[in-house]
Design goal:
- β2 and β3 form a beta hairpin.
- This protein folds into two domains: about 100 residues, Enolase-like, domain 1 (2-Layer Sandwich), CATH 3.30.390.10; about 200 residues, Enolase-like C-terminal domain (TIM Barrel), CATH 3.20.20.
- About 50% of the residues are buried.
- Helix content is about 30%, strand content about 25%.
């Protein structure tokens, strides 16, 4: 019989991770383990509770534990879509079920999901929000990386993005404002990003006040993050966004993320595959979608002082598919 176990794990961040909503020095993740002792099989899934979406570690762990009887009774991924709302808790269980099925059947998770085998890919590397001077220095240190994701935060952003470009003159730049811009700053910030050669802007306006995006010229593609969780939110994006950031902690797992990717593509939207700050266990399932994506942002383990063992293999900004011992 399958049994569910839930754990909370803490991983220190290398330095600090700062965005417009604040700064933190550790990643706190919730891990789900589904095991069958008689078959000597166990599957794992990791999620990162996100306060922006009304989640915390305690609520997410409790939501996972509430499914213990259903897991023991044999509930599958399709049933989870009906039993649980999108979010971190469902993500951990969905990914654990994928891993369990892969290990029990001897088939890789990508094959079970009906996807192509994953291959090495280039991930973005995130620069935290800071002063123009600190961000220029961070960009200089990371200037050998081909793709940098720049966290912005509102007032002073034109100076920040110009400083990053000075520090990393040859890197492709994408920016993430995390809802920190407003109508009064949008035009100036867009102009500064255009001057710096930015190729994608993620969530410039608050998710509940982004209608202005449908009434302005968008010289740089705009990507929805907080404005989209799963397929139910796609209609809202029409005329406002050119791309979406798919994160498993928002979709509630790989099962929904795959369907979201297919439907978004059908609507002409470009795809970013993104992440919260988590370990290799959280990135591994998302790697199955990398070949669908125009932009990959799975650098969570690169931001940590310590990752899980075994973890994903990174060679610079090249991320390799997970080995079976990790996931899938």
């Amino acid at each position: 019989m399958r049994r569910l176990a839930v754990a909370v794990d803490r991983f220190p961040i290398a330095g600090a991770f700062t965005i417009s909503r604040g700064s933190r020095t550790e990643a706190v993740v919730v891990t789900a383990r589904i095991a069958d002792a008689e078959r000597a099989v166990a599957g794992w899934g990791e999620c990162v509770p996100y306060p922006r979406y009304g989640e915390n570690v305690e609520s997410v762990a409790a939501a996972i534990e509430e499914q213990a009887d259903a897991i023991a009774a044999g509930v599958g991924r399709a049933e989870l879509l009906e039993r649980m709302k999108p979010g971190a808790a469902r993500n951990a269980l969905d990914c654990a079920l994928f891993d369990f099925e892969a290990k029990a059947s001897g088939r890789p998770a990508w094959e079970i999901a009906g996807l192509a085998a994953p291959s090495p890919a280039t991930t973005a590397y995130t620069l935290s929000l800071g002063t123009p001077e600190s961000m220029e220095a961070a960009a200089r240190d990371a200037s050998a990386r081909p793709l940098l994701k720049v966290k912005l935060g509102g007032a002073g952003d034109p100076a920040r993005i110009a400083a990053v470009r000075r520090g990393a003159p040859d890197s492709r730049l994408i920016v993430d404002a995390n809802e920190a811009w407003g109508p009064e700053t949008l035009e100036a910030n867009l102009a500064a990003c255009l001057a710096a050669g930015v190729t994608l802007i993620e969530q410039p306006l608050p998710a509940d006040d982004d209608g202005l995006l449908s009434r302005i010229e968008r010289p740089i593609p705009i990507c929805a993050d907080e404005s989209l969780h799963d397929r139910a939110g796609l209609d809202h994006l029409a005329g406002r966004y050119d791309a979406i950031n798919i994160k498993l902690d928002k979709t509630g797992g790989l099962t929904e993320a795959i369907m979201l990717a297919h439907e978004a593509r059908a609507r002409g939207l470009s795809l970013m595959i993104g992440c919260m700050v988590g370990t290799s266990l959280a990135m591994a399932p998302a790697m199955l979608l990398a070949h669908h994506a125009d932009t990959i942002d799975l650098d969570g383990p690169l931001l940590l002082a310590r990752d899980r063992t075994p973890g994903l293999l990174f060679e610079g900004s090249t991320i390799h598919p997970p080995e079976r011992d990790l996931w899938g």
